[in-house]
């Protein structure tokens, strides 16, 4: 074997150094250009038109995002080539597509002769025909509905039957700190229901029982956000784009920016910054702000006090009227009705003693599992806020006077 000369060794060393330098520069450029807020999923190249399905879930900025889409539909198409696969209303996808599939037997939807579902079939076909027409004219089409987060595997299979095989589907899902999500979801379900249609809002204890009493899925998971992730991974494989809602807020990145610039257009570096600035400059609205739990407690206490007042005047010439209820069909709240989002109720809640507790530990294991599976970036700060309720045991006469001032006249 010939022994390499000093010149040959020098040449080899030079080539190795050059190769390492090139690789180093490539890595550095890649690091400078990447601005990823997503998981590692859905990075595979997708051929053909893409249908991006934003599934929420509830209480992760979905209503504000859907409002943004409707306000900026023409601009999204003209500026970024992103079309909406729905029309007419921010909640149209849920109303016309997701809910019919969720609440109807798919066999009846597929059978054009099945009685009883004719109108539902017509509305579903009309909505999805519009979606498919957009897929024929646009490379990227968006659907958004938190109702998709309630889909099981059979619902997604039904959706796939109607949408066909012409598009590459991907799902976008956000994770929210479970304690904060639970507090927000509980408040949302009760804020406009002074009496749960009849009397008193659902107690938080009852809400917790339903949440923690969920049946395990086939993976043995009972956590709602993990169950959703499992369904999406099963149906969309590696075409799931996952991110932390809390991390987005920490990075001052809107849900609209994430879904459009990251999940839909897959932008990085300078193009991502331009997209973000462009999206953030557009009009939007904040929707569905949930009241604190203490405000719900105030409504419950006020209702209890009113029933005591009503009982004392039961046999008088001017008995108290029943506590006002919300219309079941229209959710109409009559003027003066006490609900937890009323300014007077919110003000009263600030004057009462509170008892607060942190629930992080109860959800830590499930949260760690979600981030481990998605590889999504975690927020640096602990996002959970203590959950505070009215400390009934420490209410004194002055506190009760605050509550009695809220009561409607008999």
Describe, in plain words, how this protein is organized in 3D:
- The protein has a domain at 50-177 and 214-280: 3-Layer(aba) Sandwich (Rossmann fold).
- The protein is 50% helix and 8% strand.
- The chain has a 5-stranded parallel beta sheet with strand order 2-3-1-4-5, with helices on both faces.
- α4 crosses α6 and α14 crosses α15 (343-349).
- The chain is an alpha/beta fold.
Share of residues in helices: 40-55%
Reported by name, the CATH topology of the domain at 50-177 and 214-280 is Rossmann fold
The number of helical segments is 17
Strand content of the residues, in percent? 5-15%
- Please mark out the parts with pLDDT under 50 across 5 or more consecutive residues, or reply none: 1-36, 38-43, 194-199
């Amino acid at each position: 074997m010939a022994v390499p000369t000093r010149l040959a060794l020098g040449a080899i060393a030079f080539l190795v150094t050059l190769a390492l330098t090139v690789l180093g520069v490539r890595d550095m450029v890649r690091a400078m250009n990447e601005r990823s807020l997503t998981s590692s999923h859905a990075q595979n190249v997708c051929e053909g038109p893409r249908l991006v399905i934003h599934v929420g879930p509830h209480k992760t900025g979905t209503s504000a995002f859907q409002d943004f889409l409707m306000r900026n539909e023409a601009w999204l198409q003209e500026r970024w080539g992103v079309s909406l696969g729905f029309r007419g209303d921010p909640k149209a996808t849920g109303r016309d597509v997701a809910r019919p599939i969720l609440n109807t037997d798919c066999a009846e939807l597929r059978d054009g002769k099945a009685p009883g579902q004719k109108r539902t079939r017509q509305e579903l076909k009309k909505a999805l025909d519009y979606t498919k027409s957009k897929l024929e004219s646009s490379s990227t089409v968006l659907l958004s509905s938190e109702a998709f987060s309630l889909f099981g595997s059979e619902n997604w299979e039904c959706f796939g039957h109607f949408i066909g095989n012409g598009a590459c589907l991907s799902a976008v899902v956000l994770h929210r700190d479970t304690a904060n999500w639970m507090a927000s979801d509980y408040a949302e379900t009760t804020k406009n229901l002074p009496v749960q249609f009849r009397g008193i809002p659902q107690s938080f204890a009852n809400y917790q029982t339903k949440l923690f009493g969920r049946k395990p899925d086939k993976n043995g998971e009972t956590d709602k956000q993990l169950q959703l992730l499992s369904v999406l991974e099963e149906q969309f494989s590696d075409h799931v784009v996952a991110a932390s809602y809390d991390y987005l807020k920490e990075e001052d990145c809107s849900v609209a920016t994430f879904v459009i610039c990251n999940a839909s257009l897959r932008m990085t570096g300078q193009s991502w910054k331009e997209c973000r600035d462009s999206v953030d400059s557009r009009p939007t609205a904040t929707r569905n702000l949930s009241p604190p739990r203490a405000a719900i407690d105030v409504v419950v206490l006020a209702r209890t006090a009113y029933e005591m007042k009503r009982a004392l005047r039961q046999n008088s010439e001017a008995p108290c009227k029943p506590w006002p209820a919300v219309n079941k069909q229209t959710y109409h709240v009559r003027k003066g009705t006490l609900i937890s989002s009323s300014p007077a109720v919110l003000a009263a809640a600030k004057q009462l003693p509170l008892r607060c507790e942190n629930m992080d530990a109860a959800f830590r294991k499930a949260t760690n599992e979600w981030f481990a599976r998605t590889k999504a970036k975690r927020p640096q700060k602990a996002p959970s806020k203590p959950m505070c309720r009215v400390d009934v045991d420490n209410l004194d006469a002055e506190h009760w006077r605050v509550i009695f001032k809220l009561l409607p006249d008999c």
